[in-house]
Amino acid sequence: MINKSLKKKYIYQNKQLFGNEIYLHSLNPSTAGKKVKIEDSWYSQLKKEFDKDYWVELSELTRNNYLNKTIYPKPALLFNAFDSTPFEDIKVVIIGQDPYHGEGQANGLSFSVNHGVKIPPSLQNIYKELHEDLNIPIADSGNLQSWANQGVLMLNSVLTVEKEKPNSHKGIGWEIFTERCIELISSKLENVVFILWGKQAQALSENIDSKKHLILTSVHPSPLSAHRGFFGSKPFSATNEYLKEKGRKPINWLIK
Q: What pLDDT is stored for residue 5 in this prediction?
């Protein structure tokens, strides 16, 4: 049996994740209309996805993981990338692998951490390349929310991770969901820049129409690979040049 305090915590998490669909092991649609608590424009694009068998299994597993383990990001931030960047506002997509697995790091945006959190090595390298590319000062904050607010969708391929266990949720179903998101962006929008760092992100290029969009690729900004082609790739200036060429407002990459 689940004790009352644990059940109360579980129900709170479930409200954050799945709206009013809070009863243990219940997969019935929410009476409020939404089955998943996600930004409206994204919900309209993805609502059919939430009826599919893989999503039913994935959401059940996610509930149980949050109940029994320490999972990042916290439930309210699971769909932060979608909530921060409405579907129609997308100009750029940056694909990450999975959330940071250290305490207090993951905030639902790929590569990003909240103000006051130590900047992870990959993001330090992103800042170095940003400085070399556009002469933007290296920031002392790792919070990339200002990018998201301008139409940069910072999406991890896998949306959850167990504490101190990188890639622990690889293969449980998130990849199916995020691939569908990429397909929707590619098919329904135009002139989007897809920035794919590393082999896992580059595998998603199969879901992108290169005739409608710009695809920028390089090795991952991780310290293990950044010197093999990430440094000097100039993705930020290339992105802005393309956006301006297509009559779209460029991104202000300065961290605010």
A: 63
pLDDT of 63 reads: 93
* Catalytic positions: 98
* 70-123 pLDDT per residue, tens: 999 999 999 999 999 999 999 999 999 999 999 999 999 999 999 999 999 999
In 3D space, the residue among 53, 49, 23 whose CA is nearest the CA of residue 36 turns out to be 49
